[in-house]
Structures are given as C-alpha cells and as structure tokens.
C-alpha cells in the first residue's frame, strides 16, 4: 500500500482523487490546513506528498520549502496556478513534479508510481528496518520483534501498531479506544493499561523501566523505537 499525504483545501477534489487512487492501492490522507499537514507529517510516515499551492494561511511554495528542510520525500505540486515562475520556484524549492489543474486523475496515478519507482527510499527503509527491534508490516498486519513474529491479539496489534505509527508522539488512552477497531468504545482506560501490560510482557519489558512503550503520566503512552 502506497501512503500519500495530500494537502489540498478543495474538499470535493480531494475526495474524488482519494476515491480514485484507492483503486490502485494508493491510500490518501487529505489535510486541508497546511500547518496541520506539516504537523501530521512529523508523526506519520508517508511515501509521497501531493501539495496544492493556493492554501489558507501560507503559500504552498513555502510549505514545499518547509517540507524539504526536514524530509527527503517526493512532492508532486497539484495547482491551478499556471505561471511558469510558480513552476520554476516549486522545482527549485524541492518539488519533484508539477501537475497543472485540471488534469485526469489517471495521470496523477501514473506520475505517483513513476516517481516512486525512481526513489531508492523504500529500499533504504527496508535496510533500516533490519536494524530495528520492532518492525511493522501493515499489509500483513504483523509486527516482528528482533526478527521473530509477535503472537498478538487483535487489540494488542491495534495498540502497538498505532503507537508505532505515532513514533515519539504522545497518544492518550481515549485516542486508542476510539481509533482501534478491535477495542470497544465502552472500554475503560484501565482496560487499555491491561492490554499494554500484556504487550510489554511479550516484549520482555519491565513495567518500571519499559524500553519501547513509555507511560506518560495522566495521558497515555508513547512509542520509542
């Protein structure tokens, strides 16, 4: 599954593109607010970004520049602005492609896959995974610990995978309850603590000095790789 972050304030267009790309195993998360988009990028991992230029609060060219400061991730500009200087500036700011609106979604799908085929980043990530103790495979819904598959219940997998995807970010117990399908919304915070305790046992962690799942007093937990 290819994960794409789209920063686009045209909700109707974003919905059309999201539904279309899903047919090609491309999962799109659209954020209308550019500042929120940058924040999401800091806590979630994506394979590519689709970025509009005319955004509320900050110009997309500046967003492109901010992304490129911290992330080596492909960026496709999707914009109704046809000025050649916008295109030149976007490419100078680190964009990999510039697609003028309106366009056929089929062309966007083709460009996404063409860019990703040229990217060595996926292979690099695979190499990094080999050095990690915990490795998440979302496609198989599996988590390996030191190279061995963890035997997890649906709830345990849900919590651990959610924390891993939020790497370093603090996650409240309530967020876990409402975002994990295997956990009933009627569950209590105590039940989350019990499941986390079981996960720690399977990782061989001491509850007093856990290595990967740290407690955040009064809030919840965070994952440390």
Outline type: elongated
Query: Mind summarizing the main beta sheet?
Result: 5 strands, parallel
CATH topology of the largest domain: Rossmann fold
CATH class bucket of the largest domain: Alpha Beta
Tell me what portion of residues adopts beta-strand conformation.
Answer: 15-25%
- SSE series: EHEHEHEHEHHEEEHEHHEE
Radius of gyration: 20 Å
Going by CATH, the architecture of the largest domain would be 3-Layer(aba) Sandwich
The figure for the number of domains is 2
Regions with little confidence, pLDDT below 50 for 5+ residues: 121-130
* Backbone structural class: alpha/beta
Total helix count?
Answer: 9
The helix content, as a percent range, equals 40-55%
Summarize the structure.
The protein is of the alpha/beta class.
What features would you describe in this structure?
This protein is α/β, with parallel strands linked by helices. The protein folds into two domains: 2-124, 3-Layer(aba) Sandwich (Rossmann fold), CATH 3.40.50; 132-223, Winged helix-like DNA-binding domain superfamily/Winged helix DNA-binding domain (Arc Repressor Mutant, subunit A), CATH 1.10.10.10. The protein is built from nine helices and eleven strands. It has helices at 11-22, 34-43, 60-70, 84-92, 105-118, 121-131, 154-165, 173-179, 189-202; strands spanning 2-7, 26-31, 48-51, 75-79, 97-100, 134-137, 142-145, 148-149, 171-172, 213-216, 220-223. The strands form three sheets. It has a five-stranded parallel sheet with strand order 2-1-3-4-5, sandwiched between helices. A three-stranded antiparallel sheet has the order 6-7-8, with helices on one face. Strand 4 (75-79), helix 4 (84-92) and strand 5 (97-100) form a beta-alpha-beta unit. Helix 7 (154-165) crosses helix 9 (189-202). The radius of gyration is 20 Å and the shape is elongated. The two termini are 22 Å apart.
């Amino acid at each position: 599954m290819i994960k794409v972050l789209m920063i686009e304030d045209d909700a109707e267009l974003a919905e059309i593109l999201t539904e279309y790309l899903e047919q090609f195993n491309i999962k799109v998360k659209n954020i209308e607010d550019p500042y929120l988009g940058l924040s999401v990028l800091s806590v979630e991992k994506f394979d590519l970004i689709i970025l509009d230029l005319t955004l509320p609060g900050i110009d997309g060219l500046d967003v492109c520049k901010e992304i490129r400061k911290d992330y080596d991730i492909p960026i496709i500009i999707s914009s109704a602005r046809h000025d050649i200087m916008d295109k030149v500036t976007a490419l100078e700011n680190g964009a990999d492609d510039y697609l003028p609106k309106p366009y056929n979604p089929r062309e966007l799908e083709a460009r996404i896959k063409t860019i990703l085929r040229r990217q060595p980043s996926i292979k690099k990530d695979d190499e990094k995974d080999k050095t990690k103790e915990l490795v998440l495979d979302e496609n198989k819904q599996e988590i390996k610990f030191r190279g061995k598959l963890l035997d997890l219940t649906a709830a345990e997998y849900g919590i651990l995978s959610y924390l891993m995807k939020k790497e370093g970010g603090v996650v409240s117990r309530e967020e876990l309850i409402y975002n994990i399908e295997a956990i009933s919304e009627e569950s209590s915070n105590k039940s989350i603590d019990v499941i986390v305790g079981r996960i720690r046992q399977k990782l061989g962690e001491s509850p007093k000095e856990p290595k990967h799942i740290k407690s955040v007093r009064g809030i919840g937990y965070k994952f440390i790789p």
